[in-house]
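HUMAN:
Could you generate one sequence with tokenized structure?
ASSISTANT:
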Amino acid sequence: MLTQRLNSGRQGGAAICAAVNQQLLVHEYTATQIKKAVVGNGHASKAQIQYMMSVMLKLPEPPVEDAADALACALTHANHQSLGTTIQRLPEGMRTSRRGGRYSR
């Protein structure tokens, strides 16, 4: 399990590096942020995300798990962009906690 997480982290890091090297903007959202944006509950199940994607996008049937996750991520980003609430660069000396709260060094 730990090896899987390490490999997954490396793959994500490689994807981010490749995007940045091509001067593309990179936005990251936690699973909790995505679930809360789509379902209204940050601890929603996969089935709930699948159901909400089929309702929100008026799909004839719920998408498979991976497709539902990708659609939920895309909708979360689109909503954040339209609201202008993407994460801004923090002032020098500031950092964020794991839960998204801001605190100083």
Q: What stands out?
A: The chain has one domain: 2-85. The beta strands are 94-96, 102-104. The radius of gyration is 16 Å.
